[in-house]
Amino acid sequence: MSKFKLKDTIDRLIYRGFNVLSELLFYIKRKERALVAQNVQYKGKHQGEKFFIMGNGPSLNTLNQKHYEYISKHISFAVNLFYKNDKFPEFEPTYYAMVDPLSITKAYESMYTEFDNKYKNSTLIADYRAKELVDKLDRRNRSIYLYSKKFPTDHIECDISSNSFITMNVVSTCILIAIYMGAKEIYLLGTDYNSFASRSDVHFYKEEEGLNRKIENRLGYQLKYYHITTEFHYLIAKLAKEKGVKIVNLCETSLLDAYPLGRFEDLINNIIPNE
């Protein structure tokens, strides 16, 4: 056995033990269990429907009003700082995910407010630890809280009504939620997935307009992070195949190879790419 395979084997054993401990801790947290158990109402809620999940990559700037009008006819997810997008002000995503690690801190409070002011009807998806911040928005039944403490090893699941899996990437989280909700087809946009290979903007907005925080930009960190998140995407692709869910990445220049690439124009013209 090579040293790389040996390390992978040891890592899997460690994370399997970590997941067992995580489940035990979740079991004794009655308040948190009761909170995420409410998510069962979303299981199969959009059975057989078409979903669009929009990351915040620079390719999002290529979308026009025709694209947003098409997306508006289906179930959609937007994430993090998408609310800064003003190209089609009439557009309002069905769901809006803010699950960045910083989303549980005071640094996100103004972002929650800005999001809420713009998208009154979108259902917010947030970490359970952000509940106090979200409650200030008085969103009542328009919020979904996640408790994600399990680390994927050789499989991943999409049950958000229990202790769900860590994905380290908000788009990955949205894909799992879409599968849980009964999606038949999932289309990805703004998923350039190339910040480790580019020194240009990695989001559709200018970086200084985003959250003011220190970002680790060293190549070694980027490659390690993308390695882990890409392995998770492979597991998600496997799960989708098992459940008969088609996932197509409509960002034609994306470096993410877990899903087949497609063209938005072909989709509009009912030319759907094969797996």
Provide a descriptive summary of the structure in words.
- This protein has one domain: sialyltransferase cstii, chain A (Alpha-Beta Complex), CATH 3.90.1480.
- 35% of the residues lie in helices and 14% in strands.
- The protein is built from eight helices and eight strands; from the N terminus they run ααβαββαβαββαβαβα.
- An eight-stranded parallel β-sheet has the order 6-5-4-3-2-1-7-8.
- β7, α7 (219-242) and β8 form a beta-alpha-beta unit.
- α6 runs parallel beside α7 (219-242).
- The longest helix has 26 residues, at 3-28.
- The relative contact order is 0.16.
- Residues 43-193 form the 6-hydroxymethylpterin diphosphokinase MptE-like domain.
- It comes from Sphingobacterium ginsenosidimutans.
- It holds the Pfam family MptE-like.
